[in-house]
Amino acid sequence: MDGEQGSERDAPPPGATPAGPRPRSNRGKAPLEHPGVRRVLVREIALSTLTQDELGERYGVHQRTIGRFAERHATEIESVAAEAGDETAGLWIAKKEARIAEYQADVTRANERLIASDEGDGYADPERWMGGKHRALRAVAEELGALPQRMQVTTEQTHKVTYTVEGVDLSELT
User: Fold this and answer.
1) Which distant-in-sequence residues (6+ apart) come within 8 Å of 92 by Cβ?
2) Could you give the CA distance from residue 66 to residue 74 in angstroms, rounded to a whole number?
3) Number of domains the chain is built from
4) How large is the angle between the packed helices 74-82 and 35-46, nearest 10 degrees?
């Protein structure tokens, strides 16, 4: 077995450490609730790739912790299991409604910042927030199909274009 690489199944997911205590610097979130770890664990539970004991060892937590995680995320796990062939199952960002809701939250926040800048808050950068707001609104319009598709027009004919630069002697240029 010397020199053999472990299988992909044996490798911990991103953000997880091999069995043992995990660092506590996860911005207040439990280790299993880190978005990258959570998605992989939900998928592993849904597809029954490993037992809860094996998952506990893999993520460095007790089997009961995996069980409680499974109870908390039962709806999401069921959804992923129902869409087992879909790699994006369980990702909120893969759903149009969720993406639009995020854009709506961003526009609401931009509006709050713009109002604050109108009231002399000084904290907001109106041009930056206005630009972000407009990008979000355009993205939603694209999501909903409210904008016509951009088309590139090509023609069979070739045209020669000649440019004249006035006030410059082209023979002096090297």
Assistant:
1) 98
2) 12
3) 2
4) 60
H/E run at residue 113:
helix 96-118
Does residue 25 contact residue 17 with C-beta atoms inside 8 Å? no
Specify whether 85 is located in the same domain as 100: no
CA gap 140, 136 in Å, rounded: 6
pTM, two decimal places: 0.42
* Residue at 62 is within a domain: yes
Mean per-residue pLDDT, 119-144: 83
- Asked if residue 81 and residue 45 are part of one domain, the reply reads yes
pLDDT tier for residue 17 given thresholds of 50, 70 and 90: very low
In degrees, to the nearest 5, what angle opens at C-alpha 62 toward C-alphas 12 and 83?
55
